[in-house]
Amino acid sequence: MIGSLIGKGPFIAVDWGTTNRRAWRVGPDGVAEAECEDACGITALAPGDFAGQVAMLRETLGDLPMLLGGMIGSNRGWRETPYVACPADARAIAEAIMWIDPQTGIIPGVAQERRDAPDVMRGEEVQIIGALASGLVPENATLCLPGTHAKWVRLCGGRIAGFSTWMTGELFALLGEHSILAPQMEGKARAGAGFAAGVVASAECDPLGHLFAVRAAHLLAAPMIDGPGYVSGLLIGAEVRAGLRTSGGEVPHLIGRPDLNKLYAAAIAQVQGNPAASPPAMDGNAAFRAGCSALLREFA
Amino acid sequence: MIGSLIGKGPFIAVDWGTTNRRAWRVGPDGVAEAECEDACGITALAPGDFAGQVAMLRETLGDLPMLLGGMIGSNRGWRETPYVACPADARAIAEAIMWIDPQTGIIPGVAQERRDAPDVMRGEEVQIIGALASGLVPENATLCLPGTHAKWVRLCGGRIAGFSTWMTGELFALLGEHSILAPQMEGKARAGAGFAAGVVASAECDPLGHLFAVRAAHLLAAPMIDGPGYVSGLLIGAEVRAGLRTSGGEVPHLIGRPDLNKLYAAAIAQVQGNPAASPPAMDGNAAFRAGCSALLREFA
To answer: Sign of dihedral through CA atoms A78, A82, A87, A91?
Structure first.
């Protein structure tokens, strides 16, 4: 039944996160024909708001089939959508979509149900499926998805075989907003000398032992060139070093915001000792739209 | 002149921090004869409040000579008291006391003016001098002072030769108050099975890669036995491992709050693989009072 309604024409893809929401009208060729982005993340809304919000999105983008991914499927979202267990592929995820009605589906997240390494994702699985469907990542690969809760993902035979989450983005935000380092962390992290110094310092396996230097240097009137860059370099550097150890040195494909991809690419090149090497990178929004298209094709 | 007024009878020692303040009347034998503790840290007071606050402390504890240590000497405190550079001993610190009047002195902090590892302390130097003066730590030793900004200190010939700061306590508080882990971090960290599991996980050199497991386990209905314990074990475990690498395995003397000393002692014993070994530990408040006594003796 669902297949008869969707999978052929344009549709709406919604990446509905904790604090932000991005929605696109996706054409048959996968191109974004229209988009809207706002701060109506799930925590900005009450439980009864979601149906009305979805109607408003259709008023803006067209009365079309809609796929929603991200935290909208969590226990704080519209309708809790159970995780699919690893290893998971596009078919398993498509089959577990929670259909609110025949035109409106919530994409499930993916869970790694390992007692020694429990982990979950919601939204990234759509980007991963999109990157695979676009032919931008091979079926056996290591992926890195930078963000608030960055993911390192192992793909085996086109399936999400396992993954680990790094709270790098959230820690960076916590330090910049609430810690004693906040005054020295104003502004955006950039891939410059400060970032590179942070990546170097992260090599000692104890990035947390270097954070306070940002404050101490300021007090000793020898301020860091770039506080946010240094802290970002420390945290991303530690993450990248651990990720590369786990992947056996295999360079990951990056899927994320272009500015974050750039920071991760710089850290990876530095850790690999090859400043010219640039890991393949894909825009996370494009990957999300491609992932929704691929999931709908499972019903065609 | 100063020597004629102080160093012979009882005096008041004040550990005046960012958020808290502890003051004691210290008898000639170094014993606390009276004390008061409150939340009148420097950030709770306006610049003009300090003289009045000091007068009130004297009303409570006696009209006696007073030594003040901690953030009271910072640029946000009563009177900025320049740091003494490493290597620093009791004499150098005593000579740099900022005398507001002949009966009231602010103890300077200590700075490590290394471009590659800038660092500062304010208050811990008093505890270190106290531990030395009490004969509880040898002149050549590694010390660890747990806290919001934990310090690992190298003593050489009775001087503070160098040190490094770990924002372990602040990070733990940030994660417990502001992060996505907060709901799973309610309660106090204790040295139990959860803490031990965190110390184990910190062994992989990437404690930050294990934090999210606390959240994921909860979502997968397999909650950690002890969220605050696990996170504390991860952070303290990472700090202790790095500290022991730096000290060449030399077990540090602990100076701090008894509950924190206990957590650090548990982590050290676990990392050393010797559950029976307990590092020597000294109460931080007793060390502070002893340090003030020792500084005053420099004027006797």
So the answer is: negative
Closest-approach residue (CA) in chain A for B241: A206
**Per-residue confidence (pLDDT) for residue B4, from 0 to 100:** 45
Q: Residue B1 pLDDT more than 50? A: no
Please give the backbone phi and psi of residue B25, each rounded to the nearest 5 degrees, phi first: -90, 120
| pLDDT tens track for A26-44 | 997 788 999 999 999 999 9
Q: What mean pLDDT comes out for the span A193-207?
A: 89
Chain pair A-B, CB pairs under 8 angstroms: 119
> Dihedral angle at the C-alpha atoms of A198, A202, A204, A209, nearest 10 degrees?
80
ipTM: 0.91
Strand order in the sheet with B66-70: B32-38, B21-26, B11-16, B66-70, B104-106, B98-101
Question: What is the H or E stretch that residue B23 is in?
Answer: strand B21-26
- How high is the pLDDT of residue A173? 96
Cβ-based contacts of B245 with chain A (< 8 Å):
205
Q: How far apart are CA B164 and CA B250, in angstroms?
A: 16
| Chain B: closest CA distance from residue A191 (Å) | 20
Domains in chain B with CATH codes: 2-136+285-297 (3.30.420.300), 166-279 (3.30.420.310)
Distance, CA of A209 to CA of B245 (rounded, Å) = 13
Question: How many CB atoms are located within 10 Å of the residue A91 CB?
Answer: 13
DSSP per-residue codes, chain A: -HHHHSSSS-EEEEEE-SS-EEEEEE-TTS-EEEEEEES--GGGS-GGGHHHHHHHHHHHH-S--EEEEEGGGSTTSSS--PPEESSB-HHHHHHT-EEEETTEEEPP-EEE--TTS-EEESSHHHHHHHHHHTTSS-SSEEEEE-STTEEEEEEETTEEEEEEEE-HHHHHHHHHHHSTTGGGG-S---SSHHHHHHHHHGGGS-GGGTTTHHHHHHHTT---S-HHHHHHHHHHHHHHHHHHHHTTTPPPEEEE-HHHHHHHHHHHHHHTT-TT----EEEHHHHHHHHHHHHHHTT-
Which of B71, B149, B170 should we substitute to test contact with A (largest number of A Cβ atoms within 10 Å)?
B170
Q: Do residue B179 and residue A175 have CB atoms under 8 angstroms apart? A: no
Regarding pTM above 0.90, the answer is: yes
Six-digit token string for A63? 């009365």
| Chain A residues close to B75, C-beta within 8 Å | 219
- For chain A, the first-to-last Cα distance in angstroms comes to 11
CB B26 within 8 A of CB B13: yes
Q: How far is CA B105 from CA A145, B33, B78, in A?
A: 54, 20, 11
Are A161 and A84 a contacting pair, CB within 8 Å? no
The residue whose two tokens read 């709050």 is B257
Task: Name all contacts of A72-77 with Cβ < 8 Å and 24+ positions apart.
Answer: A72/A14, A72/A16, A72/A42, A72/A106, A73/A98, A73/A106, A73/A107, A73/A108, A73/A109, A73/A122, A74/A42, A74/A109, A74/A122, A75/B219, A76/A42, A76/A43, A77/A16, A77/A42, A77/A50, A77/A106
